[in-house]
Amino acid sequence: MSGALRLLSVCANATRKDAILAVLDTVHGYELSRVMVQAADRLGLNFAVIIMKPRAYPGEEPPSSVVEAMKASDVVICATSMTMFYTKARLAACKAGARFLSMAGGTPSTLASAAMQADFRKQEKLVGNVARRLTKASVIRILSEEGTDIELSVEGRQGHAITGLCKKPGDAQGVPDIEAYVAPVESSVHGVLVVDASTSVTGLLTSPIRIEIHHGEALRIRGGSQARRLVTMLEDTKIRNSFRIGEFGFGLNPLARFCGSIIEDEAVMGTAHLALGENRPLGGRNAAPIHVDLVLKQPRVELDGEVVLKASRLSI
Asked: How many alpha carbons lie under 13 Å from residue 244 in its C-beta half-sphere?
């Protein structure tokens, strides 16, 4: 209940004048709706819930009836099992003036987590500093003891901040995600990426996933059953752009812990993540129907040759 109250009053900045819509699915929607409705009642909010069939992959569009409800709302909280942050539906809702909060992969445990109790306002300054540093950077290199050695260009690309706080119409945030991210120049990414924490389609990894990348495209993905599930989902989109690297970001929530929910996993302080697929809402040019986040536990990150993350310590 404490997490649900913070979600509505702090993160969504909801008022009694707002029309608030929670978009959920049948994976955890019934449990989440009960606590959200109770929290909304305590705050005296105008709150509605839609529970739909789960999407097949991150970024799949919702039914048209859901899109229309989102566009008609002042606040949209999307706690579906697969993210809707990169959908046309989300962009249309924000264009219509909705404040959008993504809690992708969220569960009742997410609302009960320490990550929801983070001081979101206090972290704003750090997140802004990191986003500005990403904007100034030209080349990013990521290394890890697991075998990651990847380089990418962000020349001309703008860093962005996810603070977990929706303040004005059209804002789109994640919660309890706190991060700074940038869309790499699509063809610039080269090297080997070894994902050792979690992904948005598998949850926590039981064994690492090794991805060989050339000219921005994942040409070979190896690992156990979770790697095969990732490949199958990407192949099912039938678009090669789904295999392109679309994002790099730093996790910046000091209270987040690895739990298998991507909205918290990618926020863990001292981690970094990359993503495959759609990145146009992030300032990139890669059009794809899917966006899959890939989280690394303790990478070493260099911006233009300067070490800014090592052994989970960020120096920006």
From this structure: 23
- Helix-strand-coil percent breakdown of the chain, rounded to 5? 30, 30, 40
Asked if 255 and 118 count as a contact pair (C-beta separation under 8 A), the reply is yes
* Residues 85 and 158 reside in one and the same domain: no
Alpha-helical (H) ranges within the chain are 2-6, 29-43, 64-71, 88-95, 108-112, 120-136, 225-236, 262-265
Instruction: Name the residue type at position 241.
Output: N
Q: In the numeric block, which tokens belong to residue 217?
A: 């495209």
Residues 87 and 183 in one domain: no
Domain co-membership, 288 together with 175: yes
pLDDT in tens, 155-180: 999 999 999 999 999 999 999 999 99
Same domain, 156 and 45: no
pLDDT tens, 81-96?
999 999 999 999 999 9
State the total domains in the chain: 2
Looking at the structure, tell me whether residues 194 and 227 fall in a common domain. Answer: yes
In the predicted model, what is the mean pLDDT of residues 227-231?
A: 98
| 154 shares a domain with 87 | no
pTM score above 0.90:
yes
Written as one string, the DSSP assignment of 157-187 is: PPPEEE-S---STT-EEESS--EEEE---GG
Query: If residue 274 lies in a helix (H) or strand (E), which one and from where to where?
Result: strand 272-277
CATH number of the domain at 67, please. Answer: 3.40.50.2300
Nearest CA to 264 out of 174, 181, 202 is that of 174
If pLDDT is split at 50, 70 and 90, which confidence band does 277 have?
very high
- Regarding whether 164 and 58 lie in a shared domain, the answer is no
Q: What was the pLDDT predicted at 27? A: 96
Domain ranges, residue 282: 118-314
Beta bridge partners, 101, equal: 77, 173
Q: How far apart are CA 165 and CA 289, in angstroms?
A: 26
